[in-house]
Structures are given as structure tokens and as C-alpha cells.
Amino acid sequence: MSGHAAAAIAIRQTEMFRAKFLYPISDNVRSINYKPSPFYLKRKGEICLLTTIERINEVLSKIAYWILVIMMAMMSIICFSQVIARGVFHFVPSWMEEACRFLLIWCSFLGAAVTLRKGGHACVTVLVNFFPFQIKRYVAIAVDICMLVFYGVLTYQSVVLVERYIYRVAETMDISMAYVFLAFPVSFGLMVFYSVEEIVRLFVAPEGVLRLQVRIDNVEMLPPAELGKSSKS
After folding, report:
1. What is the mean pLDDT of the chain?
2. Could you give the CA distance from residue 141 to residue 23 in angstroms, rounded to a whole number?
3. How far apart are the C-alpha atoms of 42 and 6, rounded to whole Å?
4. Does this model's pTM top 0.70?
């Protein structure tokens, strides 16, 4: 299962609950209309929690995205100016190269965080694809928990790194290196939030409510009769 397909599944699941279990699905998915049972109503609190986390992360993701766009534009302009200055004036200000390096660091790590939320990172799922739906879900939960711990450790260590370089000054730009290394805790902190969202989604994602079959870009849902059977299992 690709990252985009998994993200599409998760979005469709949460939107289905958010619409109070009467979800107008797109043309690629057969619509399901049924009355909410007590099993669904018990999970309203969990769905509200997931929705709150999603809204917070959506705001953070949009802010990070536009910061990334601005930094990419600045880096492109500075790099282009370097080429013009070297070819026409035969002189390049020393701060330009350093500014490009610093912007590249920010763009790389911030872009990695934004890509994580979109499910765009590459992953090897050859072995996992042979597992049943339930095992896939538990494997995904275990992987996301490991990632959460990993990002948490990196966030803590990067904060220590920033504190260590507060009084270090860049060679040509005369700014604190802490502003450069701040890209690490910001990006890893965002990854922590996104990992928490994914873990909560996997716990709330009701294997007893609906099962999804992914075929390329098409998401199919089982009919209500099958949903009732799966909720008892």
C-alpha cells in the first residue's frame, strides 16, 4: 500500500465519521447510508479527539507549507542572483552562499515534515502487503510508535544542539547559528505531532466498522451487511 493510498484511506475514514456516519462519497467509492448503531455512538469521543488533533495539525501544516514556499522562493532568487553576479559582475557577495546553505537546511527538514503529513515518504511494503487487514493495522501502529519515539528523541537532542549554538555566530551573515539549527527541533516537533495524529487515527480507525480495499487509486467499501459482520469480529 503506497503512502498516498494510506493517507486517502485515513481521510475517508475520518470524514465519514465527521459527517455523522452519513458520508457523501465520491464517484470512486460506493456510497453507504445506514443508521448509526450503539457501536458507532460509543466512539464519538474518540472521533472528536481525532478531529481536534487533525485541525491543529492542519493549521501547523499550512503554516509550515507557506514558510517552506517562501524559503524556497528566497533560495531560488539568491541562487539566481549568484549566477548573474558571477557572470556579469565577476563578483559574488560572500553572504549569498551561506544564506543558500541555511535556507537549504530549513527547506530540507521542513519539507520532510510536510511530506510526512501528506504520506509522501517512500516505504517498502512488499512483505506487509501479504498480511491480513488486522495485522497490517497492528504493524502500522507499531511502526508509528517507533517513529514517534525516534522523532521525540531527535526533538530533544536538537533542542540541546540549539542551546549549545546560541552564542555561535555565522561567518558572513553575522547571525546566531541557533536560528539555523532551529530547523531541527521545529521539523522534528512537527513530525511528533503528525505521528501522534497517525497513531490516534489507527486506533480510532474502526476495523469493526468498515474495511477498505485499495486497488490503485480506487477505494472500495464493503456493503453495510459486511460491516455488521466485521463489527462483531
Report:
1. 74
2. 26
3. 25
4. no
